[in-house]
Structures are given as structure tokens and as C-alpha cells.
């Protein structure tokens, strides 16, 4: 079962789609497992607005009436989607790619917070109080076309420092710099959750084993005017551990810019754990 696999334990949640008949108050609930949320951003400029749109109530009426199994009639109804099981690691995809006759990339600047309260987007969440998530990683697509471009990411280390990971080029950045990005995917860790803590530790272990085998590795730091070389231990790397094996010396760090798989292609990343 999907609920028992490691990926689901890290990213998995459940989405409830509810249809409420306004004639007899019958409620139909459908539950689906999810690994991420896909949010439309074409007409929005903030993550909160995109979440509000995703969970807003939709009236089914006119030619789109609901065939109520209790009323046995085509009736007016209200449909709404909410999370009913909050994931330990919340992965959010901002749908920056529209596929029409030619296809286009949506370049909107969508603001997102360092801490996110998901209580109003979860079934019964308002009664529980704040359900807080902390940002720990984002994925960015560089380029103006849906057919080409380059992916890189920003990752928060356990120490609290943020680093930009662009192939073998890794450098420290400020949180302000991270929040200014036109993100493609966002990764939030649930606060005060043993499950999320264990999940993050598993991801960090996997990432670090891919990135650094032992000891200290040097990375470029952009703090204090740039050009300074800072040292991070292997366990300082958070999810993804994008420092490439064999690229520990400063001479092996190459600048960004090489082309990569286009968004939506079989090779495009879906989560930091896969990069």
C-alpha cells in the first residue's frame, strides 16, 4: 500500500473532496492520497491567495448540477476540497507552465512566507488552532521557455543557514534572498511533529550520503561581500544535499548556467528528495 512506503510517510497526505447537496444536506466525501499540492497561480500574487483559491467553495448549478444519490434529482450543490491529513513535509508545486497551442511559462512573482499556517486549509483545522509549517527548501526554474532551462534550489541547513545549490556551485545566501525568488516548488516541514522531524532526518541522511562522504567540505559563501570560503560539515546539509561528490575544492565549483531538462519533461524534478 502507498501509505506504507517511505516517500508517502515523508510527503504523503490526504485530500478530501466534499459535495454538499443544498436540497437535503447530503454530503458525499471522497478521499485521495497525495504527495504534493498543485496550485494555480495565473491570477494570483501570493501563496495564501493560491491556497484560498484551491480550497474555495464551488457552486454546482445550471448545466453543472449535482446528481444527488439521496434526492435522486439533479440539484444545486457546493463542492470544496480540503486537506484532511496534513503531511509531515508539505510539497507545493506552483503551476508556472501553461500548455496550450504553444505553451508558456507563467512568470508571476508569487510571494510565500518563511512560516505558513495551514489550519484553514485542513479539515477541522480552525478548531485545532494554528498548524504551522516552516520553509526549508525551494526549487527554481531559470529560463523563459517551457522547452528548456535550468533547475537549481535553495536549502535550509539544520544550523539555520540558507544555501543555494546550483549543480556543483554551492554558496550561502540570506533568507531575504530566498523569499525573493520566483519559486517553482516549495517545501515546508511541519512544526512540533515527531513524524516531520524523523522524515527530515531521513532526507538529510540520504542527501548527505550523496553529497558528502566525510569531514568538512568547502563551499563559496556570498555573505560579507562574497568571495569568502566557508566550511560546512556534512550534517549541515539539509534535504537534498546538493553539494556534488568530488567537488569539494573551490577550483571544481563551476558557475550556474548550463541547460537542463525542461519543466514537465520526464527528467524534471518533483521533490528535493529526488534531486
Automatic annotation (TrEMBL):
<dbReference type="InterPro" id="IPR028889">
    <property type="entry name" value="USP"/>
</dbReference>
<keyword id="KW-0645">Protease</keyword>
<feature type="region of interest" description="Disordered">
    <location>
        <begin position="214"/>
        <end position="275"/>
    </location>
</feature>
<feature type="compositionally biased region" description="Pro residues">
    <location>
        <begin position="256"/>
        <end position="266"/>
    </location>
</feature>
<comment type="similarity">
    <text>Belongs to the peptidase C19 family.</text>
</comment>
<dbReference type="GO" id="GO:0005634">
    <property type="term" value="C:nucleus"/>
</dbReference>
<dbReference type="InterPro" id="IPR050164">
    <property type="entry name" value="Peptidase_C19"/>
</dbReference>
<dbReference type="InterPro" id="IPR018200">
    <property type="entry name" value="USP_CS"/>
</dbReference>
<feature type="compositionally biased region" description="Low complexity">
    <location>
        <begin position="246"/>
        <end position="255"/>
    </location>
</feature>
<dbReference type="Pfam" id="PF00443">
    <property type="entry name" value="UCH"/>
</dbReference>
<dbReference type="GO" id="GO:0004843">
    <property type="term" value="F:cysteine-type deubiquitinase activity"/>
</dbReference>
<dbReference type="InterPro" id="IPR001394">
    <property type="entry name" value="Peptidase_C19_UCH"/>
</dbReference>
<protein>
    <recommendedName>
        <fullName>ubiquitinyl hydrolase 1</fullName>
        <ecNumber>3.4.19.12</ecNumber>
    </recommendedName>
</protein>
<dbReference type="GO" id="GO:0016579">
    <property type="term" value="P:protein deubiquitination"/>
</dbReference>
<dbReference type="InterPro" id="IPR038765">
    <property type="entry name" value="Papain-like_cys_pep_sf"/>
</dbReference>
<feature type="domain" description="USP">
    <location>
        <begin position="1"/>
        <end position="191"/>
    </location>
</feature>
<keyword id="KW-0378">Hydrolase</keyword>
<keyword id="KW-0833">Ubl conjugation pathway</keyword>
<dbReference type="GO" id="GO:0005829">
    <property type="term" value="C:cytosol"/>
</dbReference>
<keyword id="KW-0788">Thiol protease</keyword>
<dbReference type="GO" id="GO:0006508">
    <property type="term" value="P:proteolysis"/>
</dbReference>
Amino acid at each position: 500500500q502507498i501509505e506504507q512506503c517511505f516517500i508517502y510517510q515523508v510527503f504523503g497526505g490526504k485530500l478530501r473532496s466534499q459535495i454538499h447537496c443544498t436540497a437535503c444536506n447530503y454530503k458525499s466525501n471522497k478521499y485521495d492520497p497525495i504527495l504534493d499540492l498543485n496550485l494555480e497561480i495565473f491570477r494570483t500574487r501570493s501563496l495564501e491567495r493560491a491556497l484560498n483559491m484551491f480550497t474555495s467553495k464551488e457552486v454546482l448549478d445550471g448545466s453543472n448540477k449535482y446528481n444527488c444519490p439521496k434526492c435522486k434529482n439533479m440539484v444545486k450543490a457546493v463542492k470544496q476540497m480540503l486537506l484532511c491529513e496534513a503531511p509531515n513535509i508539505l510539497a507545493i508545486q506552483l503551476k508556472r507552465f501553461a500548455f496550450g497551442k504553444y505553451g508558456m511559462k507563467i512568470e508571476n512573482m508569487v510571494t510565500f512566507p518563511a512560516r505558513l499556517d495551514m489550519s484553514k486549509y485542513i479539515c477541522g483545522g480552525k478548531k485545532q488552532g494554528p498548524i504551522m509549517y516552516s520553509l526549508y527548501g525551494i526549487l527554481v526554474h531559470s529560463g523563459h521557455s517551457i522547452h528548456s532551462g535550468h533547475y537549481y534550489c535553495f536549502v535550509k541547513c539544520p544550523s539555520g543557514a540558507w544555501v543555494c545549490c546550483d549543480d556543483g556551485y554551492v554558496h550561502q545566501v540570506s533568507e531575504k534572498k530566498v523569499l525573493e525568488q520566483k519559486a517553482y516548488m516549495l517545501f515546508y516541514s511541519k512544526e512540533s511533529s515527531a513524524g516531520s522531524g524523523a522524515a527530515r532526518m531521513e532526507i538529510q541522511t540520504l542527501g548527505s550520503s550523496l553529497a558528502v562522504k566525510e569531514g568538512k567540505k568547502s563551499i563559496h559563501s556570498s555573505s560579507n561581500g562574497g568571495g569568502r570560503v566557508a566550511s560546512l560539515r556534512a550534517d549541515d546539509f539539509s534535504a537534498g544535499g546538493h553539494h556534488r561528490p568530488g567537488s569539494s575544492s573551490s577550483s571544481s565549483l563551476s558557475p550556474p548556467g548550463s541547460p537542463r531538462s525542461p519543466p514537465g519533461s520526464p527528467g524534471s524534478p518533483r521533490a528535493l528528495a529526488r534531486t
